[in-house]
Amino acid sequence: MRERTELEDRLGSIKRFDNELEDAVTLVELAEAEEDSATEKEAIDQLKSLKVEAERRQIEALLSGEVDSNDTYVEVHAGAGGTESCDWARMLFRMYARWAERHKFKVEIIEETAGDEAGLKSGTLLVKGHNAHGWAKTESGVHRLVRISPFDSNARRHTSFASVWVYPVIDDKIDIDVKESDCRIDTYRSSGAGGQHINTTDSAVRITHIPSGIVVACQGERSQHKNKATAWNMLRARLYEQELERREAAANATEASKTEIGWGHQIRSYVLQPYQLVKDLRTGATSGTPDDVLDGDLDPFMEAALAQKLSGGAPIAVEDVD
């Protein structure tokens, strides 16, 4: 039923697009015949808008991976650098939440571990929406920030790193067998806001999968039972994503290098001083307005990464409106 609904939505949107395109072309022809420049400009603007939408739909139509349409988890971890790095992790955490809100996706905070003085040591978001994982999966990697640190009394420029890990929520049709004997389960008190109960009971849960070394944590609920159930789901999702990576690496050795997440392997740089620029080192996509990017304007970077990956590096283009 879900697949049927998605297909109906796609077909419906294509029909609406065709109708809007036909209406715009007809309007241009009428305006030219009547020499109505204002109406002609309005129709051409509409065609340009449709062109932008067509480019986006062309990329979105290629999101045909096994789990591209699923909800997704977005994990952010601060790197070395103390308070400055934790603050950068908090900025990234907010950036992805704002990106999800722009797309009308539902966002839930699964886990937050506060930094010693400010920011986040780590945090996990659950983003719910159609193709949430397909779009967000391009964000996995190390993100680098260059700015004058507000925590440095000498106002010196600092470079900070934080890693982002994106993996899909797996649904009931995907069976992942995890042996409880292979896992260590720890409970602890939640940190951050939440009231007296959440801070005084061992409701937070951390599960360590010993064979793989994968660690997941959840403290979003007041109930330890609910947090444990969510943590198990996160672990199964991580193991599934790991298996997908193995398949991808076996099929294409060059793709294996893209899955490495380590210091010095940043995928994107955000420079706030001495100049303002965000640059994706994989695709060359840039933005001269870092404030907009940090407020969730990530679509140009995601689209460029998808276009590069899904077309083997060749750009995906739509004919210009004449």
Automatic annotation (TrEMBL):
UniProt GO cellular component terms: cytoplasm
Main subcellular location: cytoplasm
Post-translational modification: Methylated by PrmC. Methylation increases the termination efficiency of RF2.
Keyword Coiled coil tagged: yes
SUPFAM superfamilies from the UniProt entry: Release factor
SMART domains assigned: PCRF
Coiled coil feature spans: 14-57
Sequence positions bearing N5-methylglutamine: Q196
Alphabetized GO MF terms: translation release factor activity, codon specific
Alphabetic keyword roster: Coiled coil, Cytoplasm, Methylation, Protein biosynthesis
Organism domain of life: Bacteria
Residues of the Prokaryotic-type class I peptide chain release factors domain: 189-205
InterPro entries cross-referenced by the UniProt entry: PCRF (IPR005139), Pep_chain_release_fac_I (IPR000352), Pep_chain_release_fac_I_sf (IPR045853), PrfB (IPR004374)
Localisation: Cytoplasm
Presence of the UniProt keyword Coiled coil in the record: yes
Family per record: Belongs to the prokaryotic/mitochondrial release factor family.
Biological role: Peptide chain release factor 2 directs the termination of translation in response to the peptide chain termination codons UGA and UAA.
Protein name as annotated: Peptide chain release factor 2
